[in-house]
């Protein structure tokens, strides 16, 4: 996370997505363009159905609750919000903040945004992690989905159900099939 603050190029958004996710760039751009350019925006999907509880060290072990967007599904921060996060997230500060609440990086982002800056997360159902039942995503809705994931969920392979030219053996994540649905003219699509 702190590496983002060392980038000198001007960008409007910082998005974090795990390397085992599929990102649909058109859906992502459509989503982000719906927000005001000068807004303080933190958008993603929580993996929990309620705010997480943490205890802040050095503050009397005070209990705090906040929403966070799971890194496994991906999330985005507007540049304006990312700049406001800098006192707790730039350089080594991010690791210190994370250690203070004893939670991983995606939780730390939510903590900074909601508890330090008082800004609410925008919950978006178009981000997906392997921690949800991906069979519930219809093939018809794939063009609108921002991210897709796959993995083991409840001791079974968890991936979206899509029909296409690739078998589940050749495409266990189903990402090649999704890509060919979205971009059928790709050279390696059947």
What structural class should be given to the helix and strand makeup?
A: alpha+beta
CATH class wording of the largest domain = Alpha Beta
* Adjacency order of strands in the biggest sheet: 1-6-3-7
> Using only CA atoms, what is the Rg?
18 Å
* Global mean pLDDT: 91
CATH topology of the largest domain: Spore Coat Polysaccharide Biosynthesis Protein SpsA, Chain A
Largest sheet: 4 strands, mixed
Helix content: 25-40%
Estimate the strand proportion: 15-25%
Report, as a whole number of angstroms, the end-to-end distance: 38 Å
InterPro entries: Fringe-like_glycosylTrfase
Family: Belongs to the glycosyltransferase 31 family.
Keywords: Glycosyltransferase, Membrane, Signal-anchor, Transferase, Transmembrane, Transmembrane helix
Subcellular location: Endomembrane system; Membrane
Word description of this protein:
The chain has 190 residues and is of the alpha+beta class. It has two domains: 2-123, Alpha-Beta Complex (Spore Coat Polysaccharide Biosynthesis Protein SpsA, Chain A); 134-182, no CATH class. It has five helices and ten strands, in the order E-E-H-E-E-E-E-H-H-H-E-E-E-E-H. The protein has helices at 25-33, 79-89, 93-101, 105-116, 175-182; strands at 13-16, 22-23, 42-44, 52-56, 62-66, 75-78, 122-123, 147-148, 151-153, 156-158. Helix 2 packs across helix 3, helix 2 packs across helix 4 and helix 3 packs across helix 4 (105-116). The radius of gyration is 18 Å and the shape is globular. The mean pLDDT is 91.
């Amino acid at each position: 996370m702190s590496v983002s603050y060392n980038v000198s190029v001007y960008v409007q958004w910082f998005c974090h997505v795990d390397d085992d996710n599929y990102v649909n760039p058109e859906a992502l751009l459509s989503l982000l363009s719906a927000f005001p350019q000068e807004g303080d925006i933190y958008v993603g999907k929580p993996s929990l159905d309620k705010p997480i509880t943490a205890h802040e060290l050095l503050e009397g072990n005070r209990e705090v609750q906040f929403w966070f967007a799971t890194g496994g599904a991906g999330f985005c921060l507007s540049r304006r919000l990312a700049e406001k996060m800098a006192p707790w997230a730039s350089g080594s500060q991010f690791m210190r903040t994370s250690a203070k609440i004893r939670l991983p990086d995606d939780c730390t982002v939510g903590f900074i945004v909601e508890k330090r800056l008082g800004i609410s997360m925008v919950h978006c159902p178009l981000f997906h992690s392997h921690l949800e039942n991906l069979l519930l995503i219809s093939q018809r809705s794939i063009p609108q989905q921002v991210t897709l994931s796959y993995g083991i969920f409840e001791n079974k392979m968890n991936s979206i159900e899509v029909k296409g030219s690739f078998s589940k053996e050749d495409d266990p994540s189903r990402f090649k099939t999704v890509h060919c649905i979205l971009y059928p003219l790709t050279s390696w699509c059947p």
